């Protein structure tokens, strides 16, 4: 029997973040809930970097708002089946870094609890969601660069197609974690 890597719960109380796992609701691009329960989970190396990102965001009067973190491979399959486009959804054979516990989707909120304008919504699978998409208003570019700077300074990397997605470097070398049946993140 192999040990499943330990995933750490990320909560507002323990990490000073807002958590709204959209895949536990119908407010995602599939239009249906994928998770039965909303638990934000990360592997220890990603969780340590998240703590640094929280500190950096606080230093500029901001807070992180998490949309997704660990994602069981079965949930990844639901997303791929809905939108089989490797620009936005990791192919099943490759596996998502979310399914490795090393990636998270998030944005910044201000001191009033309002999300910064990032030009598109989370999970908008369109060209305008690219980090450096030309033609977006300056304030949107500034907001995206602020998020990018915080996350990079904390040790995360980004992918070009999604302003909200960050992961730890070298994630692909880690195994996919399958705890959908035994772990705290159950599927619908």
From TrEMBL:
<dbReference type="InterPro" id="IPR009045">
    <property type="entry name" value="Zn_M74/Hedgehog-like"/>
</dbReference>
<feature type="binding site">
    <location>
        <position position="98"/>
    </location>
    <ligand>
        <name>Zn(2+)</name>
    </ligand>
</feature>
<feature type="binding site">
    <location>
        <position position="105"/>
    </location>
    <ligand>
        <name>Zn(2+)</name>
    </ligand>
</feature>
<keyword id="KW-0645">Protease</keyword>
<keyword id="KW-0482">Metalloprotease</keyword>
<feature type="site" description="Transition state stabilizer">
    <location>
        <position position="71"/>
    </location>
</feature>
<keyword id="KW-0378">Hydrolase</keyword>
<comment type="function">
    <text>Catalyzes hydrolysis of the D-alanyl-D-alanine dipeptide.</text>
</comment>
<dbReference type="GO" id="GO:0008270">
    <property type="term" value="F:zinc ion binding"/>
</dbReference>
<feature type="active site" description="Proton donor/acceptor">
    <location>
        <position position="162"/>
    </location>
</feature>
<dbReference type="GO" id="GO:0071555">
    <property type="term" value="P:cell wall organization"/>
</dbReference>
<dbReference type="GO" id="GO:0160237">
    <property type="term" value="F:D-Ala-D-Ala dipeptidase activity"/>
</dbReference>
<dbReference type="GO" id="GO:0008237">
    <property type="term" value="F:metallopeptidase activity"/>
</dbReference>
<dbReference type="GO" id="GO:0006508">
    <property type="term" value="P:proteolysis"/>
</dbReference>
<keyword id="KW-0862">Zinc</keyword>
<feature type="binding site">
    <location>
        <position position="165"/>
    </location>
    <ligand>
        <name>Zn(2+)</name>
    </ligand>
</feature>
<keyword id="KW-0224">Dipeptidase</keyword>
<protein>
    <recommendedName>
        <fullName>D-alanyl-D-alanine dipeptidase</fullName>
        <ecNumber>3.4.13.22</ecNumber>
    </recommendedName>
</protein>
<comment type="similarity">
    <text>Belongs to the peptidase M15D family.</text>
</comment>
<keyword id="KW-0479">Metal-binding</keyword>
<keyword id="KW-0961">Cell wall biogenesis/degradation</keyword>
<dbReference type="Pfam" id="PF01427">
    <property type="entry name" value="Peptidase_M15"/>
</dbReference>
<dbReference type="InterPro" id="IPR000755">
    <property type="entry name" value="A_A_dipeptidase"/>
</dbReference>
């Amino acid at each position: 029997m192999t040990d499943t890597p330990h995933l750490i719960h990320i909560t507002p109380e323990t990490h000073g973040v807002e958590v709204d796992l959209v895949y536990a609701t119908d407010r995602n691009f599939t239009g249906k809930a994928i998770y039965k329960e909303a638990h934000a989970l990360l592997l220890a190396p990603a969780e340590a970097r998240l703590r640094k990102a929280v500190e950096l965001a606080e230093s500029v009067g901001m807070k992180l708002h998490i949309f997704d973190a660990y994602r069981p491979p079965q949930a990844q399959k639901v997303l791929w089946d809905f939108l089989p486009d490797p620009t936005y959804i990791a192919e099943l054979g490759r596996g998502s870094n979310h399914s490795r516990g090393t990636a998270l989707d998030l944005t910044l909120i201000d001191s009033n609890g309002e999300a910064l304008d990032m030009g598109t919504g989370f999970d908008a699978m369109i060209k305008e969601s690219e980090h450096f998409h030309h033609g977006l208003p300056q304030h949107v570019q500034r907001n995206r660069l602020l998020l990018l700077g915080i996350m990079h300074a904390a040790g995360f990397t980004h992918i070009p197609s999604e302003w909200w997605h960050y992961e730890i470097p070298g994630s692909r070398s880690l195994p996919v974690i399958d705890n959908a049946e035994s772990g705290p993140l159950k599927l619908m």
